[in-house]
Amino acid sequence: MAAMNVNPKYKKQWSKLMFSFFDYLPMKYEANPREWQIRRLIWDFKDGKRSLQVAEIVARKIRETFGSMTEKIVFCCVPASSNEKNVKRYKDFSDEVCRLAGTINAFDHISVEGERLAVHEYNGTKTVKNAQVINFEEAFFKGTQVLIFDDVITRGFSYARFACALEAFGASVLGGFFLGRTLLK
Ligand SMILES: O=P(O)(O)OC[C@H]1O[C@@H](O)[C@H](O)[C@@H]1O
User: Fold this and answer.
1) What tens digit of pLDDT does each residue of 34-71 get?
2) What interface predicted TM-score (ipTM) does this complex get?
3) pLDDT per residue over 17-41, tens digit each?
4) Per DSSP, which regions of 25-171 are E strands?
5) How many CB atoms lie within 10 A of CB 128?
6) What share of the chain is helix, strand, coil (3-state, %, to 5)?
7) Ligand 1 mean position to 181 CA, how many Å?
8) Other residues' Cβ atoms within 10 Å of the Cβ of residue 160
9) Domain range annotation of the chain
């Protein structure tokens, strides 16, 4: 998916199942009415709206893909950038996907700590940026089979980083579902 010189562990994640429901056209491109509908769906979803509508299509696809194995799968969303956004975007959504599909809900086993300040150094220059801290309940994930969900995938790094973090706790990542895949023309 992304450039050549990357962590082989990330490449391993990208070689697994990755499914996106819609193509997302960034704002720098002119969109037709259908592409606008998809943009609005993704923006609404990010704002915590239309989560039940999206949960239906995601749950259906999970059952189609995994069949009788579905009930052993832990469904886990890549957290949004702050706890507030994460709850708004994913709490009801995860509940509904798991209620409809029968997957195990990881939502309450991950927490996001407020956007902390972190110092980054590059070429001798220091910059201060917001960094997200994700806390995993390690014992919950050990030995599980996880399906990851994220609202958008662009270059795939957020997904791969998150998948590797879960596997470091003894989970096995089956793959990822994404509401939108950014089209890079
Ligand atoms: O890491 P890549 O795939 O480039 O970007 C995807 C991230 O960018 C955000 O919009 C999404 O919520 C996702 O977490």
Assistant:
1) 999 999 999 999 999 999 999 999 999 999 999 999 99
2) 0.95
3) 999 999 999 999 999 999 999 999 9
4) 73-77, 104-105, 110-122, 125-136, 145-153
5) 9
6) 45, 30, 25
7) 9
8) 25
9) 22-182
Gap between the Cα atoms of 179 and 21, Å rounded: 5
Question: In which element (H, E) is residue 62 found?
Answer: helix 51-66
Side chain identity at residue 54, one-letter code: V
129 beta partners: 118
From 46, 151, 158, give the residue whose CB has the most ligand 1 atoms within 8 Å, as the site to mutate. Answer: 158
Question: Do the beta carbons of residue 180 and residue 22 sit within 8 Å?
Answer: yes
Give yes or no for residue 117 having a pLDDT over 50.
yes
176 Cβ below 6 A of ligand 1: no
Fold (CATH) for 22-182: Rossmann fold (3.40.50)
